[in-house]
Hints:
Elements: E1 2-6, E2 9-14, E3 16-19, E4 34-36, E5 48-53, E6 56-58, H1 66-81
Antiparallel strand pairs: 1-2, 2-5, 3-4, 5-6
Amino acid sequence: MIIDHGFDLFSMYSHLSSIAVKKDQILLKGEILGRTGTTGLAGGDHLHFSILVNNIFVNPLEWWDRVWIKNNISSKLDAIIK
Length: 82
């Protein structure tokens, strides 16, 4: 499953055993997307999580850091929008 967050930012969730949302559905924060599973050649129940920016895979750990988001994303968007 790939979620389009706008601004050419996407998050990807792989090895799901079930998907709880529909294509083109607008999602709310905290909404359950699906369930992890053992699809493909998986050795056990797990999730592959990725972040893509402009179709390039980037380090997803940075996107969990609120300070990094503020310094590298929010402040730049605020400067453009004002």
